[in-house]
Design brief:
By secondary structure, this protein is an alpha/beta fold. It has a single domain, classed as Vaccinia Virus protein VP39 (Rossmann fold), CATH 3.40.50.150. It is 30% helix and 23% strand. An 8-stranded mixed beta sheet has the order 1-8-7-2-3-5-4-6. Strand 7, helix 6 and strand 8 form a beta-alpha-beta unit. The protein is globular and about 50 Å long. The two termini are 25 Å apart. The mean pLDDT is 89.
Length: 244
C-alpha cells in the first residue's frame, strides 16, 4: 500500500485484512467499531423490541463478551498504530461508557489522546421520551499516533469538539442503511480537519461505506473493510454511484 494506491474496499475481517497492510501506510483512520453494549441494552427499559430491525442491539455484530471485545479492540488499536503514519490521526466513535477504557488501550498501543468530542443529533428518535432524557449524542475520540500533534486544518478558526447535524437523511440510505450509520456531513467535517487532499483514509469497520463516500467526495483516497456481505454490497453500490 503506497501513496499512489487506488481506493478500494474489502470484504473480510478487519483484523485479518489490516495485517496485510504495510507499516506506516495510512494517513488517518476514522471508524465506528462495536461498543459491546448489546446485552447491556437488552436488560434496560429501552423499548428496543419494537424496533429490532433498525437497532444495533439486535443486529448480531455487537454481541461479544466483554473479554473478547477488549482483546479485539486491543488488537485493532495495535494494528492501527502499526499502519498509521507517525503523527497520523485516529478518530473512533465510541459509547461514552467505554471512552476511558478505549483511551487506556489506545495509549498502550502508542497513541496520544487529544480529546473526546460529541456529535449532537438534532432530530434523534424520541424513544421513551416520557420516562427519561432522549439520547441525542454520541462520543468520538481523537488521537495521534506516535506524536502529540498532526495535520489540523483549522483555517485560522477555533474548531470545537462538538459537531451538530441531523441523523442520516433519506438520500444517504438509498441503497440500504446501517443501524449506526453516520451522516456524510459529520465525516466530511472530521476528514477536512485532520487530513489533506490525496491522503489515505481508512475505515476498518466500514458498514455501508459512509467514511469512504465522504473521503471520495473530498478528494482523499479510501480503504474500507466490512465483514457483512449485505453492508459491503451497499457500500459498493454507493461508491460506484459516486464514480459515475
Amino acid at each position: 500500500m503506497t501513496d499512489t494506491m487506488k481506493s478500494e474496499i474489502r470484504l473480510g475481517d478487519c483484523l485479518e485484512v489490516m495485517r496485510e497492510l504495510p507499516d506506516a501506510s495510512i494517513d488517518c483512520v476514522i471508524t465506528d467499531p462495536p461498543y459491546q453494549l448489546s446485552q447491556f441494552m437488552h436488560k434496560r427499559n429501552t423499548n428496543l423490541k419494537a424496533m429490532r430491525k433498525n437497532s444495533f442491539a439486535y443486529a448480531g455484530w455487537d454481541n461479544m463478551k466483554y473479554e473478547d471485545w477488549r482483546e479485539t479492540m486491543r488488537t485493532f488499536l495495535n494494528q492501527c498504530s502499526r499502519t498509521i503514519k507517525r503523527r497520523g490521526a485516529l478518530i473512533i466513535f465510541m459509547s461514552v461508557l467505554k471512552v476511558a477504557e478505549m483511551e487506556r488501550l489506545a495509549t498502550e498501543a502508542g497513541f496520544y489522546y487529544k480529546t473526546t468530542g460529541v456529535w449532537h443529533k438534532t432530530n434523534p428518535m424520541p424513544r421513551n421520551m416520557n420516562i427519561h432524557f432522549v439520547n441525542s449524542t454520541e462520543s468520538w475520540m481523537y488521537l495521534i499516533n506516535k506524536g502529540t500533534s498532526g495535520t489540523f486544518n483549522n483555517e485560522g478558526r477555533c474548531r470545537h469538539d462538538f459537531l451538530e447535524t441531523p441523523v442520516c437523511p433519506k438520500s444517504e440510505r438509498t441503497y440500504g442503511s446501517h443501524p449506526t450509520q453516520k451522516p456524510i456531513a459529520v465525516l466530511k467535517e472530521l476528514i477536512s480537519v485532520v487530513t489533506n487532499p490525496n491522503d489515505m483514509v481508512v475505515d476498518p469497520f466500514m458498514g455501508v461505506g459512509s467514511t469512504c463516500v465522504a473521503a471520495a467526495q473530498m478528494g482523499r483516497r479510501y480503504f474500507g473493510i466490512e465483514t457483512d456481505k449485505e453492508y459491503y454490497d451497499i457500500a459498493n453500490r454507493r461508491l460506484k454511484d459516486i464514480a459515475q
